[in-house]
Amino acid sequence: MKKIEMGYYDIAENTELLEYLKEKYKQGKIDILLHGYSHEYQLNQKKWVLK
């Protein structure tokens, strides 16, 4: 298993995942949506908020 460090990664570099998603999309088995691109928070006046 490949060890993955914390950080941002370009999905274009994950060719195995892209091929899998493209095939499932062509088969009509999945829809592709964007939920967000990070889950980073910062403390703002004693409350955690999205960056």
Automatic annotation (TrEMBL):
Superkingdom of the organism of origin: Bacteria
Specify the protein name.
Answer: Uncharacterized protein
Q: Which organism is it from?
A: Hominimerdicola aceti
